[in-house]
Amino acid sequence: MRYSVFVLMVLVGSQCQADVLRGGAAAIDITPQKLPVSMTGSFQDRKATGVHDRLHARGLVLADGRTKIAFVIIDSCLIPRDIHDKAKEIASQRTGIPTSCILTAATHTHTAPTALKAAQCSPDPQYLEYLTKQIAEAVVVANARLQPAEIGWGVTAVPDQINNRRWFIKPEAMTANPFGRADDLVRMNPPRGSDVLLRPAGPVDPDVTFLSVRSTDGTAVSLLANYGLHYVGGIAPGQLSADYFGEFARQIKSRLNGGEDFVGIMSNGASGDVNNYDFLDPRPRAASYERMEAVAEIVTNRVHGVHGAVQFSSEAVLRASEREIELAVRKPDAAELKRARQLFDNAADPLRLNMDELYAQESIRLHEADPGVRLKLQTFTVGDLAVVAIPCEVFAEIGIEIKRRSPFPTTFVIALANGYNGYLPTPQQHALGGYETWRSGWSYLETEASTTITETTVQMLQSLRAQRNQSAGSQSD
């Protein structure tokens, strides 16, 4: 079953007044104020007892004389829509920036406090309140730091740090899935260096796209980058860390000679089926934090290497659009539900479920869930640069398709934005099976969801392009 209903559209061109093109940035600490704390990123709950590096909500506000837009990229794994919505409301009330002009997204570090109930991890309500307030604060402080600015952007390829993690493997190496079936055609994270590997099930997007902001005297203000890398990991047990996203922020600040208020930002791209493992030629095991630092250094060097050629301008026009769509939720059939209830009722320890029992619990929850869910999609443009925001773990081929069909010369996709609605495979990837397609609280949208989301975001980009063309035509008359 598939259905989609467009219920809201907001096009922004003149809500907020400013004098000239301006930019401001802020990094607001979101590290929990007390430990231990639950961490998302595993099926069973893990407790963080220490802090390796501080977590932040990194904000960037831009204003062009008519419109303001705000980005906030948050060192968190998964954040539910209600947290994003509440933070935007607070920020909007304090700054006057419409909520439709505020884009908030998680990085997907697996070593941050739980913010969304998933698997066997539950958030601390006090931390959620604090997180909400601090996300809003990132917009407020960045807005207060607005100064006359110039903007430029660029793209560089970093193909050697990403691999598709879904593989076709020899049939004899395929194991049964948690639903008791052995009908998957691909496997996530198969044994590295093994002779059972056949070929990856999908592509990767090697591009790192970045938006750079500097003051009119040439001082670096902020750099917002985007890369389709799920996360890196290699964090010591029990430690909170922003992973390579935070390390990139630190390193790019140093390379661009950013001042005290400079904010480096790395957002997560279309990486739902991508990670940092080399499956054909596996690397030796690294020490804790070594890989995240190495990946951040490689990406930083590539960005810095092309940054000097960026053409900056103080005349970029800002636009934003927002739509809300409704998609169906995949449900278990009668036989699947019966099996799930039997498994869950017979679990030896309901607080420490094994894999089959965990997915049985998820099947029961989805049976009881609403038949449809509403998602928020956003598109921003900064001159000829376009940004698409999707509240899912987006497969690489979807991001590539959106870029290919975009009417703007440069486009990137920010995943895990404005909410969390699980993995987003294509219909073809659903047919292959594998972890990312297994029905659960982290993979539940209808199998045609990516088609609807792609078509909708491309339409939104086309509408923004038409506005740009109309405005250019009016100015030339």
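the 2nd protein, sequnce then structure:
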Amino acid sequence: MVIELKYDERGLIPAVVQDATTGEVLMVAWMNAEALRLTQETGEAHFWSRSRRELWHKGATSGNVQRVREIRVDCDADVLLLKVEPAGPACHTGERSCFYRQLDLTGL
């Protein structure tokens, strides 16, 4: 099925990365068309680094690659969900997930 993705004005689309086995959300990153193409061709996650303004092969230097098992698109075609098998921590801090901190729910 061909799906027309909706990239933002910078040519980027957010990608939520989820552990394919546990369902845990590991990270959120950005992809451009080239990063998505490379991900589809290699089976490993590639992203666009907004700070460095360059393509980024997840795990290329750390060894913590993410083997992509499935790519899903949300109902508006403006967010991707990558279900991956991680080879190590997803976060640059060494944590398994970038979502290891929790805010208080005070007042809710």
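The helical segments are 33-42. The longest helix spans residues 33-42.
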